[in-house]
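QUALITY CONTROL LOG
STEP: pairwise intake check
CHECKER ROLE: data steward
CRITERIA: each record must contain a sequence immediately followed by its structure tokens, with no blank fields

ENTRY 1 OF 2
RESULT FIELD BELOW
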Amino acid sequence: MRQPIPIGEDMSNGVHRRPFIAGAATEFSAFLRVFRELPSIEAILLNPPQGPVPEDAAAQYAVASAPARCASDTNFDRICLYLSRLPTGFRV
């Protein structure tokens, strides 16, 4: 019988040997790799012309969709300015 992952066990270290969680651990590791590269939305909104643009396509996709959660009438122009700096395929 398969055992669940104990609460608090670190999945990011890639040490898991249980085959049934190999896929989940791989996906989680990929998520962490992208997540760590993302600039903060606050930094983007404070200075959209200078805010860092990730080089990785997965990170670009994430940073293109993230500002939607905090978009408002007062910051929409700054979000659009930042998004205009992304490759064409990631502009929203």
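ENTRY 2 OF 2
RESULT FIELD BELOW
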Amino acid sequence: MEWQQIASDMAIAADLTSTASNGQLDASDLRERFTSAMDNDLDTPTAITALVELSDQIREASGSSDVSAAQQTLRELGNILGLSLAA
């Protein structure tokens, strides 16, 4: 997958409308994976993989769960890598 497509998918996930019918999407384990990767000598490929997985989970859950906190996590962690995912 090309970097432009990955960035586009993350931007879409960050801007999806969230619903609250099935609870809230928990992004804590992906936040931990991202943080651990960055703490491991800036393991950027693993950190990006965590962001892609979070983006995928947000897109999958957006129709049935409140993804707003997960979207905020995606924006916050993406910002660490210089990605601007508009709110």
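INTAKE CHECK: passed for both entries
DESCRIPTIVE NOTE, ENTRY 2: Helices lie at 3-15, 28-39, 44-61, 68-80.
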